[in-house]
Amino acid sequence: ADDGYKLWQRYEQVQDQAKLQVYRQAINELIVQGNSPTLTVAHQELQTALSGLLGQTVPSSQQVTKQNVLVAGTPASSALVKNLGLTDRLKAVGNEGYLLQTSTKNGKNYTVIAANTDIGVLYGSYHFLRLLQTQQDISNLSIASAPKIKHRVLNHWDNLDRTVERGYSGFSLWDWHRLPGYIDQRYIDYARANASVGINGTVLTNVNANALVLTEDYLKKVAALADAFRPYGIKVYLTARFSAPIEIGGLKTADPLDPQVQAWWKKKSDEIYSFVPDFGGFLVKANSEGQPGPQNYGRNHADGANMLADAVADKGGIVMWRAFVYSEDEPDDRAKQAYNEFKPLDGTFRDNVLVQVKNGAIDFQPREPFHPLFGAMPKTPLMMEFQLTQEYLGQGTTLAYLSPMYKETLEADTYAKGKGSTVAKVVDGSLDNHKLTGIAGVANIGNDRNWTGHQFAQSNWYTFGRLAWDHALSSEQVADEWIKMTFTNDNKFVAPVKDMMMNSHEAIVNYMTPLGLHHIMGWSHHYGPGPWIKDKHRADWTSVYYHKADEKGIGFDRTKSGSNAVAQYFPPVAKQFGNVKKVPEKYLLWFHHVPWDHKVNSGRTLWNELAYRYSGGVDDVRQMQKTWDNQEGMIDQERFQHVKQLLTVQEQEAKWWRDACLLYFQTFSKRPIPQDLEKPA
Ligand code: GCU
């Protein structure tokens, strides 16, 4: 049965016969000299993949015996690579980069995968395979590639009982019960998938942390996972529960300035390194949503982060300290809190601390303007946190290709150092000259047979890795690759499905939260509409707090006359967002309370525009259904039916959103639904 388990690594025989012949001719022999664990897996992957893609075995050899040779290695591991004259070009690709190069020497033709390190060779091997999987020309290769961001990390919100916070694809992959003795093949396949897109770190545990994972029994299990992942270049990280010194250490306090507490963390870190010599470090959520933190002791985030940073510094570890703070006291505008708490701390963090910031200031909404902290802390490396799991995006039933959403944030201009100071440049360190850089994706992976619940959710795992490596890639290109590798190269399938993916995020925004609306989902679980939610014991846990609909209009005034959150942006951005005439319409109700009869770009009134957007979103889902139905027979029935059924569910959900929101907001607007629109049921 085809259940999608193989992700984008199916390695089926190349469909185009002409291309197949060319590839067969170009690759008569495979030479991978050297036998480190990483080179061994690169070799195995090339062998397996080539025999699948070419439909014939490519013999491996240690020396050149054939005319057309595929060579993979480093100058250190391979005399062949060393003598191919790539030394200068290799200098430019650094520790993880690689070259794919066609060359001839002594009458032989070489396709070379060369790198400075073994992991570079593995990454290059996956790139080369991708070229075959997507049927590219390989006759004249001259490709150099290196990642733009150093730490490319998945964040698993996985609990030790294997439930997954905001997980919609089964239970946690980590089978703690059978670890460390049993290494599930899934761990290897997970590592292969990650390495194929350049993901080089994984945080195994939930940010709402359990200190138990730091005890010896669990550390043995963590070590077994780290051993399994190591050949694939993946470092393991853990979440550190701030109160661990009390909970598992028997101390009376977790005050970061207490010498006993500092000593406890140092000893604990040394113990972790004794099990996992290349342990990556800690991810911490502190003083947010009830998690303990330094503020419990009158200290600040830097005090907390620095204590942990000192504990891992001598081993090369890092601390990823989250800026998603959400305090006990009700704020005047929740969107302002992270900036207010963190900006004053700029310059006070240790060198091995990254502050990890969500893409937007509220919480992974279907659409958010970029977080005002980006650009505002030039002395601190800021790490991007995207969510791959679809907490607020329809969860397990919705087809959402999220590259356009990620790119929208990365390409946003902060104006921190004038025009062109994009969020991407903050994150990749180029704006403020940071060497330590990082990007995190909250994983959507579980033990479902297809890993991600929805077949198309695999594309977000893929995309995260590809954009983490190179944020300049276009969403179209990433989708194109993913579709070809996951389904087929047949353009009758690729073109319409790519269009469908490209429009999928906007469709959801329209039927859930058009024009800058946000956080009007169902209470607590965040599934389905709930704009009517009020009377919770704090205002920012209600929906009415976010949309503020009344008889005059709708939207959150974040300008001077309201919370003035716009002032957290640099002046050119603040001016634009703060002006109801200039703000991009997609953020209109994020920043402004707007009268129902206000004219928007289309010339319609705001009320009518809302109705058109909600309806348009439903229509878009129906269009997606048509597109998909047309593909029947182009791919296997299993995956076809899986997507078809889920699109039927999604269409019902879209209608549910449209009807619930329009009927609810109509109680304030007191205006009719435009004649030509389908009436809410
Ligand atoms: C959201 C989510 C929580 C999660 C939190 C976080 O609020 O609903 O489940 O713990 O984000 O990012 O820490």
TrEMBL record:
Organism: Pontibacter rugosus
GO terms for MF: hydrolase activity
Protein name (record): Xylan alpha-1,2-glucuronidase
EC number: 3.2.1.131
Domain (Alpha glucuronidase N-terminal): residue spans on this chain: 7-128
InterPro entries: A-glucoronidase_C_sf (IPR037054), GH (IPR017853), Glyco_hydro_67_aGlcAse (IPR011395), Glyco_hydro_67_aGlcAse_N (IPR005154), Glyco_hydro_67_C (IPR011099), Glyco_hydro_67_cat (IPR011100), Hex-like_dom2 (IPR029018)
All copies of domain Glycosyl hydrolase family 67 catalytic, residue ranges: 132-451
Record Gene3D superfamilies: Alpha-glucuronidase, C-terminal domain (3.90.1330.10), Chitobiase/beta-hexosaminidase domain 2-like (3.30.379.10), Glycosidases (3.20.20.80)
Top-level EC class: hydrolase
Cross-referenced PANTHER family: ALPHA-GLUCURONIDASE A
Keyword tags: Carbohydrate metabolism, Glycosidase, Hydrolase, Polysaccharide degradation, Signal, Xylan degradation
Catalysed reactions, semicolon-separated: Hydrolysis of (1->2)-alpha-D-(4-O-methyl)glucuronosyl links in the main chain of hardwood xylans
The protein's assembly and partners: Homodimer.
Domain Glycosyl hydrolase family 67 C-terminal: 452-676
Family as reported in the entry's similarity comment: Belongs to the glycosyl hydrolase 67 family.
Keyword field contains Signal: yes
Record lineage: Bacteria, Pseudomonadati, Bacteroidota, Cytophagia, Cytophagales
Protein's UniProt keywords contain Kinase: no
